[in-house]
Amino acid sequence: MCGIVGYIGSGLAAPILLDGLKKLEYRGYDSSGIALLEDDRLKVYKKVGKLDALRNELAFRNFYATSGVGHTRWATHGRPSDENAHPHVDCQGRFAVAHNGIIENYLTLREWLISKGHKFRSETDTEVLPHLLEEFYEGDLVETVIQMTKKIEGSYAMVILALDEPNRIVAARQDSPLVVGLGNGENFVASDIPALLCHTRNTYILEDGEIADITAGEVIVTDQYGRLVEKNIFEVKWEASQAEKGGYDHFMLKEIHEQPRALRDTLSGRIDPGESEIVLSEIKMTPEEVKNISKIFITACGTAYHAGLVGKNVIEKLVRLPVEIDIASEFRYRDPLVDESSLVIVVSQSGETADTLAALRESRRRGAKVIAVTNVVDSSIAREADYVLYTWAGPEIAVASTKAYTTQLTCMYLIGLYLAQIRGTVPGTERKAIIRELKKLGDKVSVILNNCAAIDSFVDTYKNAPNAFFIGRGLDQTVAMEGALKLKEISYIHAESYAAGELKHGTLALIVEGVPVIALATQQDLFEKMVSNIKEVKARDATVMAVAMAGIEEIEKVVDHVLHIPNTHPLLAPVLTVVPLQILAYRMAVARGCDVDQPRNLAKSVTVE
Ligand code: F6R
Questions:
Q1: Higher confidence at residue 29 or residue 289?
Q2: Measured in angstroms, how far is the CA atom of residue 183 from the centroid of ligand 1?
Q3: Which of 1, 329, 606 to mutate to test ligand 1, by most ligand atoms within 8 A of the CB atom?
Q4: Residue 73 burial (CB < 10 Å; 0-12/13-18/19+)?
Q5: Per-residue pLDDT at 66
Q6: Which of 199, 214, 244 finishes a domain?
Q7: pLDDT of residue 185
Q8: What is the arrangement of strands in the sheet containing 561-565, beginning at the earlier edge strand?
């Protein structure tokens, strides 16, 4: 995944492009570049490393170009280097292209272009694009882009600057996001809204196959056959400050602290005033259709998959239907038994994850109804699903997902309770009790955030540990997976999660003196068994930090440190249990001097398979 930007107007393009790229750095940050039209030439500046490397290099130059394109990269084809950084240009330096996605048939195209005499300078798939433009160009950039898109296979969002047509930039999209920002005498284009917000709130969200012809005065959108498309303006409602750090050292910390608000927003308008019913007007299934569901599938990637794991447990318990869960990159390759009577739930913060989108399409192809749980309004996944449940978490910028996870969990509860309500599988009194607790989760997260000082001494002692283990039973096991992922991805400590009862079948061999073990013990009915497993690791001299509900004093006798979370319904505990684990990962990463918001090798949303 990468971030792309484009600008045309009367302002200075270079700082606008660099600022836009800064907002998109979460999408990739191993190299960056901009292309500008100046002195009747296309000038390209590219640099390996974070965006600051490019900014520093350009700091004392005076640019006066008023149009340009830019890119921040997350390498797929070709290692991070100056040569592989975008924008890429053709042989004569007449077309500059910034691209996000993968051109799947690039090898064939590259060979064909080489046979025609084109000279390639990079190892990327993208470089075929400017050479194709050079090959096909006959005086109209939009026409040429239409012709080119017929030749390429794969996914793309691209922005093109052409020397021969200085008064326009052209953008095209297929399976990778692209948003046009509509200004006054100037226009913008970017992979995501945060890059546009300080300039405009009025946008066109481009759809697959659309091409935008962008000049300073207007934006004309056509489909891949050149037919005019009437676009509706999408007005962005959130504030630019929501995409800023707001006084926190890192976006991740800010987003962890936003969870109480985010959880309330997720629930807002979805519970009746009597607190006894779930109102999901987004899911327009008739009661008959809900009753005819024979099986539920959940599919997602990474943290969203972990939310799905909780969803599987919760929905099975509440709805009494079998729920299967798949990692989205595996889903369609195992020929799942999805049919017209299946309900498929896809979970994706960004709504653009390529594998999750492909799983959604496969499910619909097989006749299933699909509910998307996503954070990004009008994202590809939101648009292609039958029904959308927005998480309303607000923009999540840090690569490590936090508020997206807890709001996705909340949506899992909402869906579970809603289906149970229609199918009559949970008595009204029990449903009411869960709903009441659901509404208190935001306040309870605040309590945890104000009481996690105990984590600091643990972090101090173990910040140099090479390994850590997360264990739990039942729902705690699924949260253990998320805790281990958070620690790995931002602190680079090798962390594994296990079903606590499984340790003795092999992994116990790794538990030796001083190894940190984080034991989750919030599930009352499994508590005694969990204590036995904790004793097993203590007997091998591990140091154990437990997360347990308030009032469970016994745990203190068997572990070294305890983090108490407020009491709640056991099904809802994951929303609270994960919070100290997020803080633990964050503080570990800070103590180890890691780049919290932009961990190495990762990108915020993975729009390639
Ligand atoms: C980890 C993380 C990733 C994402 C995954 C799916 O902290 O953020 O594992 O959860 O890449 O992304 P979305 O939810 O955008 O589909």
A1: 289
A2: 32
A3: 606
A4: buried
A5: 97
A6: 244
A7: 97
A8: 494-499, 467-472, 516-521, 543-549, 561-565
What residues does 548 pair with on adjacent strands? 521, 564
Task: Cite the DSSP H helix spans in 83-226.
Answer: 106-115, 128-136, 141-151
Nearest ligand 1 atom to alpha carbon 405:
10
Ligand 1: centre distance to CA 356 (Å): 10
The residue type of 32 is S
CA 606 – CA 609 distance, rounded (Å)? 8
CA dist 116 and 143 (Å) reads 21
What distance in angstroms lies between residue 401's CA and the mean position of ligand 1's atoms?
A: 6
153 with 297, same domain: the answer is: no
Alpha carbon 364 to chain centroid distance? Answer: 22
**Distance in angstroms (rounded) separating the CA atoms of residues 49 and 569:** 47
Mean pLDDT value across the chain: 94
Same domain, yes or no, for 350 and 401?
yes
Structural domain includes residue 603:
no
Positions annotated as catalytic residues are 2, 604
CA distance from start to end of the chain: 10
Cβ 408 under 6 angstroms from ligand 1: no
Read off the pLDDT of each residue in 438-462 and give the average, rounded to a whole number: 93
The reply to whether ligand 1 has any atom less than 6 angstroms from the CB of 606 is: yes
Q: Whose CA is nearest to atom 9 of ligand 1?
A: 302
Residue 200 and residue 12: Cα distance in Å, rounded? Answer: 16
In a shared domain, residues 132 and 170? yes
> Does 381 contact ligand 1 (Cβ within 6 A)?
no
- Identify whether the C-beta of residue 372 lies closer than 8 Å to the C-beta of residue 354: no
CB distance 356 to ligand 1 below 6 Å: yes
Domain with 388 in it: 254-439
Mutate-to-test residue for ligand 1 from 303, 396, 478, 489, highest number of ligand atoms within 8 A of CB:
303
The reply to whether 428 and 485 lie within a common domain is: no
End of a domain among 419, 439, 459? 439
Phi-psi group of 218: left, alpha or beta (phi > 0 → left; psi -120 to 50 → alpha; rest → beta): beta
What whole-number percentage of the chain has pLDDT above 70? 99
**pLDDT tens-digit profile of 155-209?**
899 999 999 999 999 999 998 889 999 999 999 999 999 899 999 999 999 999 9
Cβ contact 138:85 at 8 Å: no
Is residue 596 situated within a structural domain?
no
- The model's confidence at residue 300, banded by pLDDT at 50, 70 and 90, is very high
Q: pTM above the 0.85 mark?
A: no
In a domain, 18, yes or no: yes
> Is the minimum distance from the CB of 349 to ligand 1 under 6 angstroms?
yes
Reported confidence tier of residue 28, pLDDT bands at 50, 70, 90: confident
